[in-house]
Specification:
single chain, 519 residues, alpha/beta, six-stranded mixed beta sheet, four-stranded parallel beta sheet, 19 helices, 13 strands, binds pyridoxal-5'-phosphate, binds ligand LJ64HWYM, lyase, TrpB-like_PALP, chloroplast
């Protein structure tokens, strides 16, 4: 068991753990410790607090560098997706590699043996102790789980905007009014985030690793690039701007929202608006990154998913490490559904929880290759040409992570559901009427929930989490269209258009009396 001083400083242990004391937080960094843990479980006298503010000329990154070790025995590497711990093919995370020798996807494989030296209770206490702090880099919901994410990176190379720690709220009225009295319905607000989507969780990890490659290992990486339906590019641009790394984004012209388009522009990225769809942009960025030393930031790069999986760990944490029954996630390129699976499964494997929830992947009917594959009994996967959908960020017909998604669904006795344009827009509007401001992708997940409730698959008292993937404010045009009732072929049943009224007392009173009469 580790006994070095530096290890103890970066790994507070439960008091009862034989490996050593559990310095209460957050001031463990200012402990004037002069001895290492002796493994006896007794509290060394030296663990008295001297709570000093860091010197005025030192920032939190420098403070972390002074106090934290850069390595502590945990490690991770790339392996072909689905490979076991004994695989002969593996790569250092410092290599620039996106595919295995046979062309399959890669996965980040952690040394679970090393992590298992500590019981689940240790990890639960450690992660809980870091929530809501400003200690670098643990103020981030992603980096507060650093040992499960990128254990070997030096905190000094981390590029973080203190992402994560997003709200998981009880959707009381939505459950009662619209879902037959569901009383344990929750929404994980991954879109209430720095750039307005869950992509921040993955991008902090990917850009941090690039920062390490450039700064520590002097690799000639000239920038980072992605194809995007709007959210990946926004996150990439923000994190690259924070780290002074050039960003290159390939966007399908006229297929993303104005708010999403303006994000990379404002953050100083090189924005290429291309006359093709997302799948076309994806093909181009893969060709370009094979040719130029531009690092690929799409979720084909499995580093991203290491950050995204922390949203699943956060959900468990927010439920005091109780496992929900269902988690519903909208799917496009299909990295995120696997990231959630990985987060949940890692916690099961390491004893933080004893099972995983059932996962539902929700797709827009206009871009539903996973749904069709699922319906075929997993017999026949065919990419589709994705049609226009209000859930524009998931308008993807040839998802890169198809194999990862199938694994996630099958391993959790999961389900794939789809939502038509009318279903997703109605679900969004209904949720909004209960106080949310859901994006259309969240609408897809909500519509899937409505359907699974109607079919009786999800029960009234099942603890269910809907993952909201982006902020509704990025997609206001869809709401304007809906509430104007101007969408061709759509009833817009829950529309609530503004009333144009003459600015005189009588007219205003007339409108209000009519309205009050209906309440
Ligand atoms: C807002 C939003 N929701 C859901 C998704 C789907 O995530 P994934 O591509 O990982 O399936 C994306 C991106 O594709 C997105 O931007
Ligand atoms: N919705 C995504 C599509 C690309 O997905 P990625 O996870 O592979 O980057 C986006 O916002 O661009």
């Amino acid at each position: 068991m580790a006994t070095s001083l530096s290890f103890v400083l970066s790994h507070p242990l439960p008091k009862t753990h034989p490996a050593g004391p559990h310095p209460s937080l957050p001031s463990r960094r200012s402990l004037s410790v002069s001895c290492s843990s002796n493994g006896s479980g007794s509290e060394p006298a030296a663990t008295h607090y001297a709570k000093h503010r860091r010197p005025a000329d030192e920032n939190i990154r420098e403070e972390a560098a002074r106090l934290a070790p850069s390595s502590h025995g945990f490690s991770a590497r790339y392996v072909p997706f689905g490979a076991g711990a004994d695989t002969p093919e593996h790569y250092s995370l410092d290599e620039v590699v996106y595919r295995s020798r046979s062309g399959s996807l890669l996965d980040v494989q952690h040394d679970l043996g090393a992590l298992k030296k500590f019981p689940g209770e240790h990890w639960r206490s450690l992660f809980d102790s870091r929530v809501g702090r400003t200690t670098w880099p643990f103020g981030s919901g992603v980096w507060s789980k650093k040992e499960f994410v990128l254990p070997e990176i030096d905190p000094d190379h981390i590029v973080s905007l203190f992402e994560g720690n997003s709200n998981l709220f009880w959707a009381e009225r939505l459950g009662i009014d619209h879902l037959g009295g569901m009383n344990d319905l929750w929404v994980k607000q991954c879109g209430i985030s720095h750039t307005g989507s869950f992509k921040d969780l993955g991008m902090t990890v990917l850009v941090s690793q690039v920062n390490r490659l450039r700064k520590q290992l002097n690799r000639p990486i000239v920038g980072v690039g992605c194809a995007s339906t709007g959210d990946t590019s926004a996150a990439l641009s923000a994190y690259c701007a924070a780290a002074r790394i050039p960003a290159f984004v390939f966007l399908p012209a006229d297929r993303i929202s104005l708010a999403q388009l303006v994000q990379p522009i404002a953050n100083g990225a090189t924005v290429l608006s291309l006359d093709t769809d997302f799948d076309g942009c994806m093909r181009l960025i893969r060709e370009v990154t094979a040719e130029l030393p531009i690092y690929l930031a799409n979720s084909l790069n499995s580093l991203r998913l290491e950050g995204q999986k922390t949203a699943a760990i956060e959900i468990l944490q927010q439920f005091d490490w109780e496992v929900p029954d269902w988690v519903i996630i909208p799917g496009g390129n299909l990295g995120n559904i696997y990231a959630f699976f990985k987060g949940f499964d890692m916690c099961r494997e390491l004893g933080l929880v004893d099972r995983v929830p059932r996962l539902v992947c929700a797709q827009a009917a206009n871009a539903n290759p996973l749904y069709l594959y699922y319906k075929s009994g997993w017999k026949d996967f065919k990419p589709v040409t994705a049609m226009e959908t209000f859930a524009s960020a998931i308008q993807i017909g040839d998802p890169v992570s198809i194999d990862r998604a199938v694994h996630a669904i099958r391993s959790t006795d999961g389900i794939v559901e789809e939502a038509t344009e009318e279903e997703l827009m109605n679900a969004t509007a209904q949720a909004d009427h209960t106080g949310m401001f859901a994006c259309p992708h969240t609408g897809v997940a909500l519509a899937a929930l409505f359907k699974l409730r109607e079919k009786g698959v999800i029960g009234t008292h099942d603890r269910t989490v809907v993952v909201s993937t982006a902020h509704g404010l990025k997609f206001t045009q869809s709401k304007v269209d809906y509430h104007s009732g101007l969408i061709e072929g759509m009833e817009c049943r829950y529309k609530n258009p503004p009333v144009n009224v003459k600015a005189d007392f009588g007219s205003v009173m007339g409108v209000l009396k009519k309205k009050l009469g209906k309440l």
